[in-house]
Amino acid sequence: MNYFRTPHEERNWAMFCHLGGLAYFIPLGHIIVPLILWSMRKDSSALVDREGKKALNFQISFTLYMFAAGILIFVIIGIFALIILGLLQLIFVIMAVVKTLNDEEFEYPMTIKFIQ
Q1: Is 4 a residue whose pLDDT tops 70?
Q2: Which residue, 100, 103, 102, is CA-closest to 54?
Q3: Percent composition of the chain: helix, strand, coil (DSSP 3-state, to 5)
Q4: Contact present, 70 and 80 (Cβ < 8 Å)
Q5: For residue range 29-48, what is the model confidence (pLDDT) as tens digits?
Q6: Which pLDDT score is estimated for 1?
Q7: Mapping DSSP to helix (H, G, I), strand (E, B) and coil, where does residue 51 land?
Q8: What pLDDT does 81 receive?
Q9: How far apart are CA 68 and CA 63, in angstroms?
C-alpha cells in the first residue's frame, strides 16, 4: 500500500536512505540512520524498500571493508586503504542520491547482499 502523496515524496525518502550513510556524527550512524528510515517506510513504498536495502547492504559491506583496512594499518597499507575506501564511500553515496532523485537505477559496486 502506498501512503505517499507524490512520487517526488517517495523519491525523497529513498534519497534519505542513501544520505543516511553519511551520518558519521552518530556512532554507527551510517548503518543506523538508513536502517531506521528504511524500516519506517519499507512497507509503504516499493522504491523506498528497494533503495533502503541497497543503502544498508552497501553501508554494512563498507563497514566490513573499513574494519579489514583498519587491521591492515599495522602493515602501512591500511592507511591508504582507509583513505581510498572513505573517498569511494562518499562518491558512491552521492552517485546513489543523484540517480535516485533522477529516477534512475543505481547499483552500488563492491556490495555484499546481506538483506535480500
Answers
A1: no
A2: 100
A3: 70, 0, 30
A4: no
A5: 999 999 999 999 888 889 99
A6: 52
A7: helix
A8: 94
A9: 9
Q: Give per-residue burial for 59-85: e unless 16+ CB within 10 Å, then b.
A: bbbbeebbeebeeeeeeeebeebbeeb
Inform me whether the pLDDT recorded for 8 exceeds 90: no
Give the Å distances, CA to CA, from 82 to 43, 61, 68. 35, 14, 9
Give the global pTM: 0.89
Instruction: Yes or no: say if 48 and 10 are a contact pair by the CB < 8 Å rule.
Output: yes
pLDDT at 25: 84
Mean pLDDT of the chain: 91
CA distance between the termini of the chain: 20
- 21 within 8 A of 59, measured Cβ to Cβ: yes
- Euclidean distance between CA atoms 39 and 50, whole angstroms: 12
The total of other beta-carbon atoms located within 10 Å of residue 108's CB is 20
